[in-house]
């Protein structure tokens, strides 16, 4: 198990047909504040954890704070992010006894919804995970009520492991089929 901190970061930008996935930059900060303060985007993630004003103070001028956060850019504009992190043993719900699976998540601005951009971006990051952390189990969690996210997970090959209740809602925990 290679720790994410041991993975070279930032990676070479990943370019797809319509997107560039790269490290977060200073110029992404305003859109990142919008993403994290949006009631719409954060609806299935427990709602915004901070107000726009608080985020303006909390997010550093250079928001590239840790490995595993890919900024998703379309036509030169930040439209969302994909996060890759280790699902620590302290968290409940794992696919292997020792935990520490690779967990993937995504958040996109509503202007990017409905065009297949999340699917394109997550597929690209899954390719990066395959090349960088080969053979590692990949997991994700989403609220059952988040139908868009659930459809995306299934379309990408994630299969349900279990459901549980957290944050006052039913959650769907799955792993990428064909991985350990």
TrEMBL record:
Highest taxon listed in the record's lineage: Bacteria
- Name any one Pfam family assigned in the record: Acetyltransf_3
- InterPro entries membership: Acyl_CoA_acyltransferase, GNAT_dom, N-acetyltransferase
Q: Spell out the molecular function terms from Gene Ontology.
A: acyltransferase activity, transferring groups other than amino-acyl groups
The keyword Transferase is annotated on this UniProt entry: yes
**Domain spans labelled N-acetyltransferase:** 19-180
Keywords, comma-separated and alphabetical: Transferase
PANTHER family tied to this protein: GNAT FAMILY, PUTATIVE (AFU_ORTHOLOGUE AFUA_3G00765)-RELATED-RELATED, N-ACETYLTRANSFERASE DOMAIN-CONTAINING PROTEIN
UniProt-recorded name of the protein: RimJ/RimL family protein N-acetyltransferase
């Amino acid at each position: 198990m290679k720790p994410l901190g041991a993975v070279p970061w930032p990676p070479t930008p990943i370019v797809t047909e319509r997107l560039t996935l790269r490290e977060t930059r200073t110029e992404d900060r305003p859109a990142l504040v919008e993403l994290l303060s949006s009631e719409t985007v954060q609806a299935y993630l427990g709602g915004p954890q901070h107000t726009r004003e608080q985020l303006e103070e909390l997010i550093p001028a250079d928001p590239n704070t840790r490995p595993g956060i890919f900024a998703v850019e379309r036509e030169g504009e930040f439209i969302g992010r994909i996060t890759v992190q280790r699902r620590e043993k302290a968290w409940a719900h794992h696919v292997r006894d020792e935990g520490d699976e690779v967990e993937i998540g995504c958040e996109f601005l509503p202007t990017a919804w409905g065009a297949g951009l999340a699917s394109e971006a997550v597929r690209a990051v899954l390719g990066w995970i395959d090349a960088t952390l080969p053979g590692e189990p990949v997991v994700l969690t989403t609220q059952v009520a988040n139908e868009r996210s659930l459809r995306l997970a299934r379309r990408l090959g994630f299969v349900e492991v279990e459901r549980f209740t957290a944050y006052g809602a039913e959650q769907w925990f799955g792993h990428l089929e064909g991985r350990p």
